[in-house]
Amino acid sequence: MNAKRAKTPKNSTTKLFVLDTNVLMHDPLSLFRFEEHDIYVPMMTLEELDANKKGMSEVARNARQTSRLLDEIVTGAEHNIARGIDLTGPSRQLATGHLFLQTEAINGILPSSLPTAKADNQIIGVVMYLGQKFPKRPVILVSKDINMRIKARALGLEAQDYFNDKVLEDTDLLYTGALELPSDFWDSHGKGLESWKKDSRTYYRIKGPLCPDLLVNEFVWQEGPQPLQAWVRVGAGRTAELETIIDYSHSKNAVWGITARNREQNFALNLLMNPDIDFVTLLGQAGTGKTLLTLAAALTQTLETKLFAEIIITRVTVPVGEDIGFLPGTEEEKMTPWMGALEDNLEVLNKPAETPVGAPGTGAGSYGGDWGRAATMDLIRNRIKIKSLNFMRGRTFMNKFLIIDEAQNLTPKQMKTLITRAGPGTKVVCLGNIAQIDTPYLTEGSSGLTYVVDRFKGWAHSGHVTLQRGERSRLADHAAEVL
């Protein structure tokens, strides 16, 4: 339940929210997110928390944190449990409602068609009992389990998802990182226009109605007789400064032999190759070139310009669950089955270059034959480290190019854990497609990737691009459209 949406006028009856276990395991601080409304924790929720507290997974950590929070709240207020414990003090005035714990056995409420042994059904039974006990008060079940909400509604109960960590209601509103300028842009913004050149780039200082909405490092473009591709260097004010970008679609600017095939790929390479940008997020469907562009930029800046010491790649191993399982070998070898995408892209980057010998980024592949390619592949592999998310806590990466693949499967909390690993000289790149989320209870609106795109927009050292066009093959493009 979104705290903002939960507000009711002071004179109306406050709501009573019954919390399902998955809400507390998703966000332990959900206890303090309901403002002036009361929350009720059934005994079955406490039982399920206890059953899930063991292990090193994120869920187990959250279960333990929830138990500690509940212990802090309840300690010293045992005589108030039946009347409700005031949350104003424990929450540092974030919440002004009361916490109720189930203090009595509740039986015989559920319809005979529902088996009482199931934990979900027992929690639904508590909601039904409270609805009968407080007929004039809104009693609402809060759960992240869709089937449980359907069951509750089928029994005539009110049920809601937990929305507090949802960044956006509609992912179509998500910041894309690029903006097409209107056709009359120069007429409406040309008054008092200043222009100058520096280091082969052209700069424009403009005034006009669009300036307050332009965010730093947002790309702007315009087609037509005088096409423009630039990015905002100073924005969100009465004036804005635009700087033309490097054209990575031209072979003279090839990155490890790769050139941009469309406008968005050109924007992405400008972010990936710019040393002032510490954090990059790339969103896009399968085949838009996210991993290939990122790897090409990483190899160029690690092996050619020596800007970074090594490349670190990590991704969520969702189908195995939280642990990387019982595969034999080292951490690196266990992660290898999950890195098929990396292998595919390295093959493309290490193919014999079609460009003439000596062109930027052609590597040994163009003149060393199979031996040269094998030697280059060994050199590249030595600089790429594959890490599991499970062992990231407490680490600090210095001068590394950190690539977080499949970032849409991370929760906002996991995303924070990963990004805060970055030490001096480290660049973090998050790749993902929010239409392909495999983590239970995570949606497009509450994914960690959506969260960081929204929170980092407008920061001078971060950039974001949503890649639009697939560049894999005509078969893949057609399949994406018709299937």
Can you describe this structure?
The protein is of the alpha/beta class and 483 residues long. The protein has helices at residues 21-26, 43-51, 58-74, 119-133, 146-154, 185-189, 263-272, 290-304, 331-335, 340-349, 369-383, 412-419, 448-456, 474-482, and strands spanning 16-19, 38-41, 85-86, 98-101, 139-142, 158-160, 178-180, 194-198, 201-207, 219-222, 228-234, 239-244, 279-284, 310-315, 384-388, 400-405, 427-432, 462-467. The strands form three sheets. The protein has a six-stranded mixed sheet with strand order 3-4-2-1-5-6. A six-stranded mixed sheet has the order 7-10-11-12-9-8, covered by helices on one side. It has a six-stranded parallel sheet with strand order 15-14-16-17-13-18, with helices on both faces. It is globular, with a radius of gyration of 27 Å.
